[in-house]
Every structure is written in C-alpha cells, then in structure tokens.
TrEMBL record:
A molecular-function term among this protein's GO annotations: glycosyltransferase activity
Protein name: Glycosyltransferase
InterPro entries: Glyco_trans_1 (IPR001296), Glycosyltransferase_grp1 (IPR050194)
CDD domains, per database record: GT4_PimA-like (cd03801)
Keyword list, A-Z: Transferase
Gene3D superfamilies linked to this entry: Glycogen Phosphorylase B
Organism of derivation: Deinococcus peraridilitoris (strain DSM 19664 / LMG 22246 / CIP 109416 / KR-200)
Length: 317
C-alpha cells in the first residue's frame, strides 16, 4: 500500500535532520513512520472530509469507496500520532486536531507571492470590459461549478447588465456542467480560458470586479488568497478552508453551501457597491501581506525546523 513505510525510503530519510511531509490528507505521512528524524506533517484536510461528496450514492463503487475511506481514515490518525509536529492550514483543522493532539498542532498555512499578485493601477489595466472571475480545476466535482452557473443565471436575471463570467484554470468543466451552461442559456456570457499563463492569470485577478468560489470542500483556497492579494473582492462558499481568511463583511463575503440564490445575492451586493468592494479588497490585501504571504510562511516553517532540530539534538539549528 502506498501509505506504508519502505526500508529504502526510511534509509534515505534518516540522512536528514528533519523530514517535511506535505500532504492532502495525513495518511501519506505514514510512510515516514520509521525514520529517526523529526517528522513535520503538513496536512490540508482529513480523508473523510476530502471524499465526502464522492461517498454518496448506492452500488458497488460507492460501497468500495466508503470501505477504502474508512481504512485510510485510520491511517490518517496513525500518521498524525507519529508526527512530531502537525501543521494545518485552516482553522477547522486546527480546532479538530488540537482536541486530539493538543501539544503538537501548529497553524502554518502556505503563502502566496504578494509581490507577484498585487493590485493594479488604472494605467496598468488593459482589459476594459468588466467581468466576474473564478479560477480552479473545474473538472473536479468538489468545485461545484454547476452552483456557480446557477447563481450566475440568477444574477443575470436580476442584473441585465451583469458582467461576463470568466473561468480560468488548468481544466475546464465536465460535459455535464457544460450541458447545464447551455440549458441555462449562458454560453454567450461565459468565457472559458484553459491553461492560462501566470502573467495572464495575474492580470485577470487584478482587473476582475469580483472573484467567486463555489466549492463544496476546500482545504484552504489558494486561489482566494491570490485574488485577495491582487485587490479583487471575493465571494466564497463556507467550505472549510475559506473561513480561515474570509471574515464575512470584513475581508470578503461568505455564503452557505449549495445555495445559488445566496451566491448570486452576494455577487450582486459587491457589483452594486463600489465602496464595499474597495473596503473588502483593501482589508484582504493587508491580511495577505501580514499572514498569508510567502515571506510569512517561510518564517513560520523555518522556525518549526529550528525548533524540531533543537529538540531532537540532531544537526545544527
């Protein structure tokens, strides 16, 4: 099984002063179980949460998924128990794991490049037509792009001059979601931009009137941080990770899961209130600079390495 320790890997890891595991769910960190070095396990979520939407339904495949998820969930706990330090990137994981491992959980979210992603002056802007932006892997069912389409339909019904919707990402929506796009008669108002480069992505963030995230589950939501760093006001579902950096009405707007009316209403609120957009985007940018920048993340991680090495008595801190 891919989660289990292997002698060759353990021998390799034993050559280092500290081992950093970066995982989606903790089970992958169990491969470092037998190493003598301190193990720092950064994890975004727990497997039961990550697979929640995939476990619904009847039949053999959902049943097998549930069985495998329960096995992996147990390995999650074994990996967390073995780790010397558990690094979490969102507040719900921080609360959940501190109850079980109160002495070794740290809130150490990853950072974004706040120098690269930054607000643009009017003279820098080249895109003239207003738009709403969403960025992500849209073929992932957990991103729930169908919710975004339904909300956008409602928004256009309420605001006949509503901005276009731009979807940018490595992957585009699944055929079933594109069929919904046509059913809602939205195709003329939605731009699909696959494989955008980093420079184009930076321009899209900085010039959008609003950013929308419609996910059912997010470990953190780096795309939200990139938008916030770019001075773009954000609306997101309360899907786990986003609540870490979005204080509703303070650094963005949060809406309930799977509620197209609420998502449409929040977008309309932003679009019709320029002063609110400016207030939210300024506070969000400040938050990213202070807590979610690459520089901030680097200092937190380096401090953890120094402390772990010093406690182990191995190497030079």
């Amino acid at each position: 099984m891919r989660y289990l320790p292997r002698p060759e890997l353990t021998a390799l890891l034993d050559k280092y002063d500290v081992v950093q595991c970066v995982t989606g769910s903790p089970a992958f960190g169990y491969a470092a179980r037998d190493t003598k070095a301190p193990v720092l396990l950064q994890t975004a979520t727990l497997i039961r949460n990550e697979r929640r939407m995939l476990l619904q339904g009847r039949g053999l495949i959902p049943l097998l998924r549930r069985v495998m998820t329960e096995i992996t969930a147990r390995i999650d706990m074994l990996a967390l128990a073995r780790a010397d330090v558990v690094q979490v990137e969102n507040r719900w994981m921080d609360r959940e794991l501190r109850r079980r491992f109160p002495t070794k959980v740290r809130f150490d979210p990853p950072g974004v490049d706040a120098d690269f992603f930054h607000p643009m002056s009017l003279s820098e802007r080249v895109l003239k037509d207003p738009y709403i932006l969403s960025v992500g892997r849209f073929n992932d069912p957990r991103k729930n792009v169908s919710l975004l389409f339904r909300a956008y339909r409602q928004l256009r019904d309420q605001l006949h001059q509503a901005p276009r919707l731009v979807l940018a990402g490595k992957t585009m929506p699944r055929p079933v979601d594109l069929a919904l796009l046509d059913e809602l008669q939205l195709r003329p108002y939605v731009d699909l931009r696959p494989d955008v480069g980093m420079d184009e992505l930076r321009m899209l963030y900085a010039q959008a009137q609003a950013f929308a995230l419609s996910s059912d589950e997010e470990g953190l939501g780096l795309v939200l941080l990139e938008a916030m760093a770019s001075g773009c006001p954000v609306v997101s579902t309360a899907s786990g990770g986003p609540e870490t950096m979005i204080a509703h009405g303070g650094t963005g707007l949060l809406v309930a899961l799977n509620d197209p009316e609420a998502l449409a209403g929040a977008l309309q609120q932003l679009l019709q209130n320029p002063s609110l957009r400016n207030e939210l985007s300024c506070r969000a940018r400040k938050l990213v600079e202070e807590r979610f920048s690459i520089q901030s993340a680097r200092e937190h991680f380096l401090n953890e390495y120094r402390s772990s090495i010093a406690r182990s008595g191995k190497g030079t801190a």
